[in-house]
């Protein structure tokens, strides 16, 4: 493909150009004239932006080089509705800040509270929840008021930002719940980093989104698999977010947007675990607005269950949202873990030079993980919960199973069936150094400092090889294994 294969699209206001890329295909888009944005992040004129890794997205005004498998212009978008929502949230921020500073609270519609927008986004599978979160956060950071809203993700099926290459925390492995303040518009270029890149080994050059997130590890794709653990981690994340807010009273007026798993949107009844988890989010993040993306029944249910506590708003689903099937999601997890370890560089279509990925130069996006051999005894590994136990028939006669869903169970790497080969492990922050402050199940409340993958087990020599994005020693550290695996 060369420049002469480029297509130029002229878009009317409030229309969007949508594309879906096949595996291995990249696309470069240059804004020639006017203004355009990708899910709320503005494009700079004359600069080619790259898209790859089966990205599916939408833009407004540009000049195109590449070969998407599907592309079209849509005149029906929900952007006006999302824009109105942003204006409402903006009024809430301004009024909350004025109230905090003791200034006169600007006149506004009486139904906009003078408190920060703390928003929970709910919706069924493939309704565009993540995209709505991204658009709302991007509009907030572009508002020119210096807002840095928090973006929280409690959908363990989806990775978020690329994980940190430093030891300061990760933000992206599937299976994680996380929150981070967003300071610059989040680009869209690849589903491997659906919300852009976090701080990496070259944080100085990754200006737009050097994010230091708080991460907890759930370890499974399905939020229903261990709802007690989900509940606990959501509440932990809330406590952490509150601590961030306590240290930055003005900063908190930017608010928080929380993305959720689709399993929160459908279930047997109002008293099921799903509603308990929604309730956990409302409590943990002090939610004042629930957005229901295009789902009438869920909207009614939320109005009935939580309408007295929070404002429930139904918003339209974009016709551009693509149905992602399970094989696509599996490939996505691979892309995400690969990008975590190695970074991700999208190769530009032939003829395109000096392109950027979401505004970052390509050389800054290459990472080199380290593969190290460690002793089994270097790392203490746990699984959380009963399903990791031996079957009841294997227990001694008379012994009853007493392991709860929340119990950390030590994993012995030398046991056959340890499940560690190719497993993704979350390495945890240290335990409280003060012995008096230690407690059972403390491990559940520790944040994640990074992820590693076990690439080889040598049981005879009691050694394992691990791939890690950092060179740091793992000796004395504690890790949790879930059900995610990855092979290069
Ligand atoms: N207007 C649009 N045009 C083209 N593609 C879009 C549009 N909106 C969303 N998409 C794409 O559709 C896919 C699904 O959207 P998104 O991830 O936001 O949905 P979701 O409801 O969060 O998904 P999940 O079922 O994983 O919870 C993504 O690849 C996204 O980039």
TrEMBL record:
It is found in: Nucleus. The keyword Oxidoreductase does not apply. Pfam families: Clp1 (PF06807), CLP1_N (PF16573), CLP1_P (PF16575). ATP binds at residues 16, 56, 126-131. One of its GO terms (biological process) is mRNA 3'-end processing. InterPro entries: Clp1, Clp1/Grc3, Clp1_C, Clp1_C_sf, Clp1_N, Clp1_N_sf, CLP1_P, P-loop_NTPase. Residues 123-343 form the Clp1 P-loop domain. Residues 11-96 form the Clp1 N-terminal domain. GO terms for cellular component: mRNA cleavage factor complex. Keywords: ATP-binding, mRNA processing, Nucleotide-binding, Nucleus. Residues 367-488 form the Clp1 C-terminal domain. The keyword Nucleotide-binding applies. Required for endonucleolytic cleavage during polyadenylation-dependent pre-mRNA 3'-end formation. Component of a pre-mRNA cleavage factor complex. Interacts directly with PCF11. This is Polynucleotide 5'-hydroxyl-kinase GRC3. It comes from Gymnopus androsaceus JB14. The lineage of its organism: Eukaryota, Fungi, Dikarya, Basidiomycota, Agaricomycotina. The gene is CLP1.
């Amino acid at each position: 493909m060369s420049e002469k294969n480029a297509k130029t699209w002229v878009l009317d206001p409030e229309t969007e150009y949508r594309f879906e890329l096949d595996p291995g295909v990249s696309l470069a888009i240059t804004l020639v004239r006017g203004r355009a944005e990708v899910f709320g992040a503005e494009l700079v004129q004359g600069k080619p932006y790259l898209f790859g890794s089966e990205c599916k997205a939408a833009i407004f005004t540009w000049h195109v080089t590449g070969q998407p498998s599907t592309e079209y212009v849509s005149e029906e978008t929900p952007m006006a509705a999302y824009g109105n929502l942003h204006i409402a949230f903006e009024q809430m921020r301004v009024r909350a800040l004025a109230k905090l500073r003791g200034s006169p609270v600007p006149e506004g519609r009486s139904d906009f509270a003078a408190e920060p927008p703390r928003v929970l986004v709910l919706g069924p599978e493939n309704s565009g929840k993540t995209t709505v979160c991204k658009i709302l956060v991007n509009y907030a950071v572009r508002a020119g008021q210096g807002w840095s809203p928090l973006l929280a993700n409690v959908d363990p099926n989806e990775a978020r930002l690329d994980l940190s290459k430093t030891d300061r925390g990760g933000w992206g492995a599937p299976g994680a719940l996380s929150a981070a303040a967003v300071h610059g518009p989040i680009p869209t270029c690849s589903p491997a980093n659906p919300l852009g890149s976090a701080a990496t080994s070259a944080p100085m050059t990754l200006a737009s989104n050097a994010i230091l997130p708080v991460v907890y590890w759930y370890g499974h794709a399905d939020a229903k698999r261990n709802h007690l653990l989900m509940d606990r981690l959501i509440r932990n994340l809330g406590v952490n977010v509150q601590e961030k807010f306590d240290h930055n009273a003005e900063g908190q007026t930017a608010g928080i947007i929380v993305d959720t798993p689709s399993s929160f949107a459908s279930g047997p009844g109002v008293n099921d675990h799903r509603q308990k988890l929604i309730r956990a989010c409302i409590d943990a993040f002090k939610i004042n607005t629930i957005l229901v993306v295009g789902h009438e029944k869920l909207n009614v249910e939320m109005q009935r269950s939580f309408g007295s506590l929070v404002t429930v708003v139904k918003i339209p689903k974009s016709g551009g949202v693509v149905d992602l099937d399970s094989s696509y999601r599996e490939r996505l997890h691979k892309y995400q873990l690969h990008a975590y370890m190695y970074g991700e560089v999208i190769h530009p279509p032939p003829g395109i030079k000096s392109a950027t990925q979401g505004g970052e130069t390509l050389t800054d996006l290459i990472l080199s993980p380290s593969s190290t051999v460690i002793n089994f005894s270097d790392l203490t590994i746990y699984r959380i919960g009963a399903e990791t136990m031996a079957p009841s028939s294997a227990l001694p006669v008379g012994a009853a199973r007493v392991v709860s869903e929340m119990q950390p169970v030590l994993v012995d790497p030398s046991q056959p069936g340890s499940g560690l080969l190719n497993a993704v492990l979350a390495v945890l922050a240290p335990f409280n150094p003060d012995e008096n402050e230690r407690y059972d199940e403390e491990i559940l409340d520790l944040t994640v400092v990074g992820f590693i993958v076990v690439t080889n087990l040598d049981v005879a020599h009691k050694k394992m090889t691990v791939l890690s994005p950092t060179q740091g020693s793992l000796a004395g550290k504690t890790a949790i294994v879930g059900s995610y695996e990855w092979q290069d």
